[in-house]
Specification:
This protein has 403 residues and is mainly α. The protein has three domains: 2-69, no CATH class; 75-171; 195-386, hpI Integrase, Chain A, CATH 1.10.443.10. The protein has 17 helices and ten strands. It has helices spanning 2-6, 46-69, 75-85, 92-110, 120-133, 138-157, 163-171, 195-205, 211-220, 224-228, 273-292, 294-300, 333-341, 348-361, 366-373, 378-386, 390-400; strands spanning 9-11, 17-25, 28-34, 235-236, 241-244, 246-251, 254-259, 267-270, 303-305, 311-313. Strands 1-2-3 form a three-stranded antiparallel beta sheet, with helices on one face. Strands 4-5-8 form a three-stranded antiparallel beta sheet. It has a two-stranded antiparallel sheet with strand order 6-7. A hairpin with a 4-residue loop joins strand 4 (235-236) and strand 5 (241-244). Helix 5 runs antiparallel to helix 6 (138-157) and helix 6 packs antiparallel against helix 7 (163-171). The longest helix is centred in the N-terminal third of the chain and has 24 residues, at 46-69. Residues 188-400 form the Tyr recombinase domain. It holds the Pfam family Phage_integrase. GO terms for molecular function: DNA binding.
Length: 403
């Protein structure tokens, strides 16, 4: 009996174990040879190999039964079913982005194709065409890759793809669809402002309607939607903290406050002394303006949807003019144009890059900076520690001279 159990398992030269089998299922031979279990773990003992082999044979029977029930569907049918039943939990902007990629690109090329009739090579060629021939940005082409993973994942979960095809397309690291090789001159650098540029920006924004938004980008590294979605109730002047849990978005032409996109985006940010003093003065002026412009505010204020669907006044937002008029992400367009005329390549998001780079240069622990910036993955934060800046180069030159 022990011999029968040992059949099909063997020890490899590196000391680890593997298994193989060839069984007939409904008149069709199914053969496998693997050195890992169903979770991808290596097999360290004979017992583990026997157990993995038994599980693999059982899975082969289940998959064969599953194949009998497979129904062919076009990519259009899979995506339509996903839109109807599978994305009710997706963020508004995610849905818009998916529909844009589908309507403007994927439908014409793949919509009427059967999902089980598309090869890895065909998708790779398509991604290469987008990136190398059409010249689309690498990060934008990555959105197409995610869409393919989404569509094939949906097809597999709904029984329109067999496990071997799905694994070949999306799981097996040697065969799965992937991005084309990145161009050598493709720029994905962290762009930050120098101390000289920051001095010019500090002077430009001082006393303007956009000063508060600038200060939040400069000293907190907020994303622009987070900045303009910030409420006074989320600012704790005594503790010197700002709670980020929402952002401003345009949805169907309406301004709304919606949740931040990821769980890690919800965070508490600590203000430095300079920003804390600025907000204390801003709070004082806000209280004065509430009295001084009371009548004007009644006319100028705007009511928008908050997270829970309730209506709130624009005067509850940090970025609000003294007369109650709301400020939005569009309020940064004019300063952006003016600063570019001054010779500085300004984008609000570069303030976030600058904040992250400066904090990295000050040797802030990576996990703390990751939390402050609301990154979902630590490798995104690590880019700030690898960024080459003028101050970093100056320090390098200084250290070289010490050799």
């Amino acid at each position: 009996m022990a011999k029968a159990k040992d059949a099909g398992v063997f020890k490899m030269e590196n000391g680890l174990w593997a298994y193989r089998f060839a069984v007939m299922i409904d008149g069709k031979q199914v053969a496998r040879r693997k050195s890992t279990d169903e979770h991808g773990n290596k097999l360290h003992t004979k017992k583990e190999a026997i157990k993995a082999r038994e599980a693999a044979i059982e899975q082969a029977h289940l998959e064969r039964n599953r194949q009998k029930k497979l129904r062919r569907r076009t990519v259009k049918e899979v995506y339509s079913e996903y839109c109807k039943n599978g994305r009710s939990d997706r963020a508004y902007q995610t849905i818009r982005k998916q529909d844009s990629l589908w309507d403007n690109h994927l439908y014409a090329r793949f919509g009427n194709r059967y999902v089980d009739d598309i090869s890895v090579a065909e998708i790779y060629d398509y991604l290469s065409e987008l990136y190398h021939t059409e010249g689309l940005a690498y990060t934008y082409v990555e959105s197409f890759l995610k869409m393919f993973y989404l569509i094939f994942g949906q097809a597999y979960s709904r029984n329109y793809l067999d496990v071997d095809t799905y694994n070949k397309l999306c799981v097996n690291k040697d065969t799965k669809i992937h991005m084309p090789k990145r161009k050598i001159n493709d720029d994905d650098d962290i762009i930050s402002f120098s101390k000289e540029e920051l001095a010019v920006l500090d002077k430009y924004f001082k006393g303007t309607n956009a000063e508060t938004a600038y200060m939040l980008g400069r000293y907190c590294g907020l994303r622009i939607n987070e900045c303009y979605g910030l409420k006074w109730s989320n600012v704790d002047l005594e503790a010197g903290t700002i709670a980020i849990d929402r952002q401003m978005q345009y949805q169907d032409g309406l301004i709304k406050l919606v949740p931040v996109k990821t769980r890690s985006g919800r965070r508490t940010i600590y203000m430095n002394d300079k920003l804390k003093v600025y907000f204390q003065d801003l709070a004082r002026r806000r209280a004065e303006d509430a009295v001084k412009f009371a009548a004007v505010r009644e006319q100028k204020q705007r009511f928008i949807d908050d997270l829970d669907g309730s209506k709130i006044s624009s005067t509850e937002l940090v970025n609000c003019l003294p007369n109650g008029q709301i400020q939005t992400v569009n309020s940064m367009k004019y300063p952006t144009r003016e600063i570019k005329r001054m010779g500085i390549n300004f984008k609000y998001h570069y303030l976030r890059h600058t904040y992250g780079t400066m904090m990295a240069e000050l040797n802030t622990p990576q996990h703390l900076l990751c939390a402050q910036m609301g990154h979902a993955y630590i490798h995104v934060t690590q880019k700030y520690y690898l960024a080459v800046t003028k101050s970093g180069v100056d320090l390098l030159k200084s250290n070289i001279n010490l050799l």
